[in-house]
TrEMBL record:
Family assignment from sequence similarity: Belongs to the proteasome subunit p27 family.
Native source species: Corethrella appendiculata
Name under which the protein is recorded: 26S proteasome non-ATPase regulatory subunit 9
Keywords: Chaperone, Proteasome
SUPFAM superfamilies, per the entry: PDZ domain-like
Length: 206
């Protein structure tokens, strides 16, 4: 088994642990907003311009401010994690023994199987800033090839992705997307954030 340097791996694990604690803190702050039946954008003044008396205005403003700060911290942290994972993967590739070049498919049936494994099943037509989709580096017009265990071999409709997302809150879900003529492996973590849903992106059929 090829193992990257322990110092690099340990540093990435520390960053991931820090991110998880930050996510938990944000979750607790969002619960403050939910208990007051407001989100990040609801007005805190009434029709006459006075502070609303049906909510704890100070508590909400304090929670919103902390959430904004934590979201900025999280974005910077995700960049550090991404850079660290890139280093780990680079070290693993450098330590891998050279392998012989794999043989290309020699018949049409094998070629079609390869193509089917990389067939797109859906497309991203909206990514909200600061959302889990944004953190995962998804972009407009990315084509989804695999979403967790869902791919072209078992995909039926978008409701499958919705069910998987709802059962994966707080868990890392691997993605394979096609961007232009390249295939990228990403990871998204469905979670509550300041916007709607657990992803912060809009997925449509191709």
């Amino acid at each position: 088994m090829v193992v990257p340097s322990s110092s690099t791996r340990d540093e990435v694990l520390k960053l991931i642990d820090k991110r998880d604690k930050l996510d938990q803190e944000m979750k607790e702050l969002f619960s403050v907003l939910e208990s007051n039946h407001v989100d990040m954008n609801d007005s805190l003044v009434d029709a006459d311009g006075y502070p609303r008396n049906d909510v704890d205005v100070y508590q909400i403003r304090n929670a919103r401010h902390k959430i904004i700060c934590l979201r900025n911290d999280r974005k910077a942290l995700m960049k550090q994690i991404e850079d660290g994972l890139t280093t780990v993967h680079t070290e693993m590739r450098e330590m891998q023994p050279k392998l012989s070049t794999p043989k290309l498919p020699v018949n049409t049936e094998e070629t079609n199987d390869v193509e089917m494994n990389y067939a797109s099943i859906a497309k991203i037509n909206l990514v909200s800033s600061g959302s889990p989709a944004d953190d995962a580096r998804l972009q407009l017009n990315d084509e989804i090839v695999e979403f967790g265990t869902i791919n072209s071999s078992n995909f039926k409709d978008l409701s499958q992705i919705g069910v998987l997302v709802n059962h994966s809150e707080g868990k890392r879900v691997p993605l394979k997307v096609k961007r232009a003529d390249k295939y990228l492996d990403l990871v998204i973590t469905p979670r509550k954030w300041s916007g709607r849903g657990l992803l912060g992106c809009n997925i449509i059929l191709i």
